Amino acid sequence: MTTEQFLSFIRDIDIEVWAEGNQLRVSSPKGVLTPDLRRKLVARKQQILALLNSADVSVRKRPFAIRPVPRDHKLELSFAQERLWFLDQLTPGEAVYTIARALRLTGHLDVSALELALTEIVHRHEALRTTVGQVEGLPVQVICPPRSFPLQVLDLTKLPEVRRQPEAGRRLAEEAQRPFDLAQGPLLRSMLLRLTETEHVLLLTMHHIVSDGWSLGVLERELVTLYTAFSTGESSPLPDLPIQYVDFAHWQRHRLRGEVLERELAYWRRQLDVSVPAVELATDRPRRAIQTNQGARPSLLLGETLCDGLKALSRQEGVTLFMTLMAAFQILLHRYTGQHDIIVGTPVAGRSRTETEDLVGFFVNMLALRTDLSGNPSFRDVLHRVREVTLGALAHQ
Question: Which of 38-52, 56-70, 120-134 has the lowest mean pLDDT?
């Protein structure tokens, strides 16, 4: 394989390389740059640098970097946001895509510092002060200017102590079920419940269109950092964000078109080129004709010995723990159903770019992992099949 062919190959799996002087820079979706590919890149480094440096100057720069875009023109939604906007238009007023997080705060609480910290977070992250408008029937992001973020405080200390926790639970459930208006906003709400002088519960409620599970981690880290600073009279220690979610949405829209889009679609057409089978699990009642969104989430705690064994097996086979557990789960579905063609949908963070790791926004994506279990394979065989399927899906997410 020539260097040109090697570059074409890694570009097909969304690995980007560019030259910065005598340095070769690489960016790829998580899990795609395997140790074997890394070794090949190192072995071909000088040839790749020579090829990039001999090309037009525009080729040497990072080709697909996310950069800030002007805010004075139409700001499109990301593809993920557009999905949720469509569902909201279809069934308005539902709270299905509400994210609620309750944080228990113990000790002396400086409410003013907490309110300032929340205000600073909303100022830092444009997504949290974004609503969805329409221009000629198409959805657009509308970014509101920064302003103070009011913290609603509800004092439950006047209630008998035995009634405080149940009342707090009722209030939290009620707030989580209160729908959002995507056009009017705000799409972030906060409520502070005071149980005692030294015990509070902070509820943050957001619409999924501006946040996701990863974003909650970003919010909590920044809230701790900012509250610590503001409660001692210091200024914010957090650096400015180089890009915002709307910049990512613009990048995504312009990145996924033409040849790049066709390459992505071609992969999924190959993966789903034959009829997609439903997993025919035996149930004690027929599936409802109309989805109700009434579900549950069971939890299972694995013992330390089993976890250590799974991690050791994963390292030995050159796979992630996720791949090992996915292989076990798909084998279980095969044993329950007798089917050899198993598809499992799995959410992924969707943050394959380092620029997006510190942003609040809706990045999460769903991937279909389709594994062929025919031929009576061993578990290791299945594990390697799952590895290839997972890497391919991540590279084309």
Answer: 56-70
pLDDT at residue 23 is higher than 90: no
How far is 390 from 388, CA to CA, in rounded Å?
Answer: 5
Instruction: Supply the DSSP string of 328-391, one letter for each residue.
Output: HHHHHHHHHH--SEEEEEEEE----SGGGTT--S---EEEEEEEE--S---HHHHHHHHHHHHH
pLDDT digits (tens, 9 = 90+) for 317-372: 999 999 999 999 999 999 999 999 999 999 999 987 888 999 999 999 999 999 99
Q: Tell me, what's the pLDDT at 57?
A: 39
Give the pLDDT confidence score for residue 98 in this predicted structure. 95
| CA–CA dist 286, 257 (Å, integer) | 41
Distance CA 346, CA 255 (A): 24
The Cβ of residue 97 has, within 10 Å, a number of other Cβ atoms equal to 19
DSSP state of 246: H
**Predicted local confidence at residue 360, as pLDDT:** 97
Place of tokens 């950092």: 225
pLDDT of 346: 95
Exposure of 161 by Cβ count < 10 A (0-12 exposed, 13-18 middle, 19+ buried)?
exposed
Q: How far apart are CA 357 and CA 240, in angstroms?
A: 14
Cα atoms in the 13 Å half-sphere on the side-chain side of 254: 14
* 74 CB-near residues (< 8 Å, 6+ apart): 135, 140
Tell me the pLDDT tens digit for each residue of 260-280.
888 889 999 999 887 777 788
Tell me if residue 195 falls in helix, strand or coil: strand
Which are the contacts of 307, defined by CB distance < 8 A and separation ≥ 6?
A: none
- Nearest Cα residue to 80 out of 239, 248, 219: 248
Instruction: Output the pLDDT for position 195.
Output: 96
Place of tokens 């070769």: 24
The pair of three-digit structure tokens given for residue 299, joined into one six-digit string: 């939890």
Q: Show the beta-strand stretches assigned E in the chain.
A: 16-20, 23-27, 98-106, 130-135, 138-143, 152-155, 188-196, 199-207, 341-348, 365-372
